[in-house]
TrEMBL record:
This is Methyltransferase FkbM domain-containing protein. InterPro entries: FkbM_mtfrase (IPR006342), SAM-dependent_MTase (IPR052514), SAM-dependent_MTases_sf (IPR029063). NCBIfam families: fkbM_fam (TIGR01444). Pfam families: Methyltransf_21. It comes from the Bacteria. It comes from Sinobacterium norvegicum. Residues 70-231 form the Methyltransferase FkbM domain.
Amino acid sequence: MKFIYKLKRTLYRGFKRDRFRVINREGIDYLVNYKNSIDRKLIVDGGYEKEQIACLMQLANKHKCTIFYDIGANIGLYTLSLSRLPLLKKIVAFEPLPANICQFKANLLLNKLHDIVGLKAIGLSDYSGDIAFLGNTGNSTGRSRVKETNINVLDESKFEERVIQVDRLDNLEEVKGELIVIKIDVEGHELNALRGMENLLADNRCILQIESYDINFPEIDSYLTDKGYKIISNIGVDRYYSNF
């Protein structure tokens, strides 16, 4: 498998010269950047987090969810896939990094979703205001994260500090009595994001996919358990919760 992966990488070297190109994977068009590791997975492997996306789609479809919140949306991989679910009537994505936002908008336009998906250029937390953010300037925009909850040792030369705006999801969305599916991938800021959606989690039936590393998982699990949520599945560091 490693040999095949290396061979494919060699065949796609031409992407480095053009940098951006449009590809189609499983009926979805993507503007991809060979420099970025997530994009390379799409180019070479045909997808990124395919097992996780398939699991979330299956859960959302099984429980007839009608709203999807994509938190830490990056270039829109989850949004583009879940937009195919016929029962979803509302999709809102949150992404604070300007480069990702531009690429996400292009992907929405390519797939004629620009009038359907609400893309908000903001991060989610447990308060409203500004916060220091570490934007990855290397080959993985998906590793960008809020500075104060940075839980991993990083090569600081590959990150540029900037200020982004954050808000509570409860301030942005007033929803009650709905079936909601939520994906959270915010590189260590998960608990803060959850605390900022306390009302939404209490007032709706929700399915959550949360990427949480072992170092911060116990606190996240304790918080959700206290709110009436239980783990229903996991794929590596991605845990799936439900309150019904």
